Amino acid sequence: GVPVPAAYAIATAELAAALGMLTGVLAQWAGIGLVLLMLGTISLHIFKWHSPYWANKKGWEYDLIMLAFAAVIVAFGPGQFALPAIVSMLSSIFLTRLTINHSLISMKFF
Question: Rounded to whole angstroms, what are the CA distances from 72 to 65, 75, 76, 89?
Answer without folding.
Answer: 11, 5, 6, 24
